[in-house]
Amino acid sequence: MADRVPEPADGDERGILLGWLAFHRDAFRANCAGLDAEQLAARTVPPSSLSLVGVMRHLTEMEWAYAGWALGPPGPWRGVWGEYADDGPEWDFDVDAAAVDESLAAWARERTLADERIAAHATLDSVGAGNGRSLRWNLQKLIGEYARHNGHADLIRERIDGWTGE
Q: Shortest CA distance to 60 belongs to which of 41, 82, 43, 39?
């Protein structure tokens, strides 16, 4: 596996938070590296319907929710994948191999937007117009989403080809 983003060194709070975000984004990237579309869409841990591309789509939505929208200028909510309803489709998880290219592009796009919105906030106490919470809160929530779902990604990847990452 290629070089990985290391765990952040000790330092100031912002640097540590951004370091953990980079670490967890890269850990997820590593779980997807070298796989084809069919493998990325494989649901390998029954009875769960999770796949790596499904987790990627969910993390893309989290990038939008806790950075792109939350930290941006006032504006309406827009789901990355479509309108969500309690009895509607799971736009992020219920996908197949045909969704891989679109999903990779959207994940990259939303990470870039998130990084721009994060950089626009001078302090961790700065409040985002989207959800009215601080940059600190939104970063912690986004890091938590990645950390939680990286555990799922580890299991899915191990079932695909035995690769266990760290």
A: 82
Annotate the chain with DSSP letters as a single string: ----PPPPPS--HHHHHHHHHHHHHHHHHHHHTT--HHHHH---STT----HHHHHHHHHHHHIIIIIITTSSS-----SSS---TTS--TTTS--GGGHHHHHHHHHHHHHHHHHHHHT-SSTTPBPTTTS-BHHHHHHHHHHHHHHHHHHHHHHHHHHH-----
Q: Kindly report the pTM of this predicted structure.
A: 0.94
pLDDT single digits (tens) 4-36? 999 999 999 999 999 999 999 999 999 999 999
Q: Is the separation of the CB atoms in 113 and 68 below 8 Å?
A: yes
Domains, the chain: 24-83+93-161 (1.20.120.450)
